[in-house]
Amino acid sequence: MLNIDQKSQVVSEITEKFQNASGVVLADYRGLTVAQVTQLRAQLRQAGVEYRVLKNTLVRRAANEVGVEGLDTYLEGPTALAFSADPVAPAKVLMEFAKANKLKTFKIKAGVLEGKVIGPEGVKALAELPTREVLLAMVLRGMQAPLTGMANVLQGPIRKMGYALEEVRKLKTAQ
Predict the structure, then answer these.
(1) Within a 13 Å sphere around the CA of 30, how many CA atoms are in the beta-carbon half?
(2) Is the pTM of this model over 0.90?
(3) Which candidate, 60, 95, 100, 165, has a CA 20 to 30 Å from the CA of 31?
(4) Could you tell me if 26 and 81 are in contact, meaning their C-beta atoms sit under 8 angstroms apart?
């Protein structure tokens, strides 16, 4: 049992984590074996995500201090929180873990994205987003497409002139 000083220290730690994290995912971890929890923690750590099981009342206090509203309805039962500077990483790792292990009892409760609460559907949509690198590649490809098209258009007349000169050369050599 924590005393008041310890509780206030934990609340300040959680508050700091909420402030520093771009993405937070709340999950109901019931039904996981010790081996599965260890595996999940390793995967989260590899993705740069911090995973902690915290008391709902302390999380509620910290969320109120940071100004995150609407989280109270999701703070029922056992709750684990995954904090990350990358807003997509915790959602992606937790959803992939649940799919890979075919977990029926492990549930995503909610998420906090840039200080706004999103429901489980929002977390699922977030997890389905392509990675940052893929998104950047898509943007770059979109920016390059017009330039490539323009280069092809500008090369057209030069190419046609080359074909015409080649035909003239063939005619002259044939004569």
Answers:
(1) 9
(2) no
(3) 60
(4) yes
Domain that holds residue 146: 131-175
Q: Interior CA angle at 148 toward 143 and 152, to 5°?
A: 160
**In this predicted model, what pLDDT tens digit does every residue of 156-170 receive, in sequence order?**
888 888 888 888 899
Contacts by 7-16, CB closer than 8 A, 24 or more apart: 7/58, 10/54, 10/55, 10/58, 11/58, 11/61, 11/62, 11/65, 12/62, 14/54, 14/58, 14/59, 14/61, 14/62, 14/81, 15/62, 15/65, 15/66
Tell me how long the chain is.
175
The 10s digit of each residue's pLDDT in 3-14 is 788 888 888 888
CATH code at 68?
A: 3.30.70.1730
Asked if residue 121 and residue 51 are part of one domain, the reply reads yes
